[in-house]
Design a protein that fits this description.
single chain, mainly alpha, Glycosyltransferase, two-stranded antiparallel ribbon, 12 helices, 56% helix, disordered C terminus
């Protein structure tokens, strides 16, 4: 699988950051920027920098995105979120979700950024954010922080509080799972809303980073239940945002959002890393196929590396904003990396197992 083009991401990007929204494929400057999206863009830029074909683009874009996220951080470690096109911050502090996503991106950068100075800068920003992370009350914000800390804590010589904070968040996630689960409902809360698979992924990534079997088991159990809800055979059908899915009620089918497919891809890849089960990799590809036309409307959502903003019952939202585009790009890069690792593994195994030929007598 080839790395995706960054054509539309470049169109959305200027020297400040990435535009939140678009009129079809044209940036909508009136809506300005947000840390939520720039944090996502920073991770995509890091992914792009790992491929020869997109390395320099990834570095050039990543530098601008990292500058934005670091500038967004307040003295108390939290982050501002919304910024107007004229670079005025529009709020004193952002939502917990935006703060969690910033920590996720910085933790990812602390481990994977292509330049050592960036890794140092990211790690220092995560240190500043630690006191605020423990105050998060929203489950997804805590899960995003867990994803970032799972990366940051895996760096050799990482500050001990990274793993300590991650372990505390992991214990809380498991406790919430046991409090919410019921017969026929193997989940973390009583309603499935947005970015659902990130909760299972957080358990899996944290379990791997900490060597915690309970977290891994929780991630696998909840992911299996979530699969039973959102897969119809090999077709991925995410929970719709017109009502979500409350336990004991019918699930909403529309509107379907691209970030759900991205979360599913990453969760399946985390499960594949934890178990080695090739069926997980196949599931990741099935979720990714949602972007490419294996969806209710049988319509591709992707053009020039951009992605449409979602699926309604009878139409596609043709606007290609940052969240949707970055969801697609992140998934494409993650699958390209997974396939490269898989090919490399089988090549190594084949070389080990190959017997030397006998020389003729």
């Amino acid at each position: 699988m080839r790395p995706p083009p960054l054509t539309h991401l470049r169109a959305l990007t200027d020297d400040t950051g990435v535009a939140q929204h678009a009129h079809m494929d044209v940036p909508n400057r009136a809506e300005g920027y947000c840390t939520d999206d720039v944090a996502r863009a920073f991770m995509v830029a890091i992914q792009a920098s790992a491929h020869e074909a997109t390395r320099q683009e990834g570095i050039d874009l990543g530098r601008a995105y990292l500058s934005f996220v670091v500038h967004a951080q307040r003295a108390d470690g939290r982050f501002r979120n919304f910024m107007a096109y004229d670079r005025r911050w529009l709020e004193d502090v952002g939502s917990e979700d935006s703060c969690g996503r910033a920590v996720w991106a910085l933790g990812f950068g602390a481990r994977y950024a292509p330049i050592e100075r960036w890794r140092t800068l990211c790690s220092a920003a995560v240190v500043r954010a630690l006191p605020s992370i423990e105050t998060f009350s929203w489950l997804r914000a805590r899960a995003y922080a867990m994803l970032g800390l799972s990366s940051a804590a895996s760096v050799e010589g990482a500050p001990p509080p990274f793993a300590e904070t991650l372990a505390g968040l992991g214990r809380d996630l498991v406790a919430r799972y046991h409090a919410a689960r019921a017969p026929g409902w193997d989940w973390f809360e009583g309603t499935m809303t947005y970015d659902n698979a990130r909760l299972s992924e957080a358990a899996l990534r944290a379990g791997a980073a900490l060597g915690d079997a309970t977290l891994v088991e929780t991630g696998l159990a909840t992911l299996a239940f979530y699969e039973s809800v959102v897969f119809e055979g090999e077709r991925f059908v995410p929970i719709g945002n017109r009502g979500w899915y409350r336990r004991g009620e019918a699930r909403a089918r529309y509107d379907q959002q691209p970030l759900e497919a991205a979360a599913m891809v990453d969760a399946e890849l985390a499960a594949h890393a934890a178990t080695g089960d090739e069926a997980r990799l196949a599931r990741a590809h099935e979720a990714f196929s949602w972007y490419l036309g294996k969806n209710d409307l049988e319509t591709t959502l992707v053009r020039d590396g951009g992605c449409s903003d979602g699926i309604a019952p009878d139409s596609v939202n043709e606007n290609m904003g940052a969240e949707s585009t970055l969801a697609y790009l992140a998934s494409a890069f993650a699958l390209a990396e997974a396939e490269e690792a898989r090919v490399a593994k089988y090549t190594r195994d084949d070389r080990r197992n190959r017997r030397p030929e006998r020389r003729p007598a």
